[in-house]
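User: Can you help me understand a structure? I only have the sequence.
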Amino acid sequence: MSSSPPIREEFVRDRVAEQNFGVVEQPLTVWERVYGNALVRKLFILVALAAIWEAYARYLGNSLVLPTFGETMASFLERIASGELLSRAWVSIHVLLQGYVIGLALAFFFTVLAMTRQLGNDLLETLTAMFNPLPAIALLPLALIWFGLGSPSIVFVLVHAVLWPVALNTHSGFRAVSQTLRMVGRNYGLTGMNYVIRILVPAAFPSILSGLKVGWAFAWRTLIAAELVFGTTSGSGGLGWFIYENKNLLDIPAVFSGLFSVIIIGLLVESLIFRVIEQRTVRKWGMQH
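Assistant: Let's start by predicting it. Here is the structure, written out as tokens:
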């Protein structure tokens, strides 16, 4: 009995020219175009939250507990027009930038030291384990004793808030760089700072950028908390002091307008600075999707 496999019939098709290929196209509906826009989706979420706020505030009917969204926006626009919120925001940002820049410089110094010296690595790991869990605002009473009431005290706690998360993320990113890239740098004769800047920093930039974001968030909320609890930083004070003053005056719409300003500044920094840096670096390099 024969066990040979069956013979399959062969077919020869005529070749189809490329220009005759049929492409199935279906136009997007209006809903698909709208829903596919990330900005529209986020605006929808914000509008929904504002509507919920307005409805619940009207249900309570007590502006001392929760003013309506309309009252908050009216107070916000009024104080923007008078320049009060803008001047208070600039006071806060000016102090924040001082602490942020100093914290970044110290974080970079400790991280480079950790990558070039074993003792530096041990030092950074020890200091990070000790001070990273310590809330920055807890150091403000000591800072007030050491530096007095004013900007230096708040800059000190801001440096603490920025230094350790940035150093921790940067150090983790440096240690995650592949051995292949490290050997490429060594083969080119790169050592010291050239090796760090040309090899480690580009390869670890996603982690570095995450550290910058975390450091900014920690510094921003530490600053507002410090101004709320301990008062002015200089002159008329920043946004935190603006919130505290209006709370004492029972001007709750103004309090919410100050909180609204804090949120807006955070969103602007995230959208106009960090997201632009991310798009022009790690996304452009194909390191994130």
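Now, to help you interpret it: Residues 25-61 form one domain. The mean pLDDT is 82. Let me know which part you'd like to focus on.
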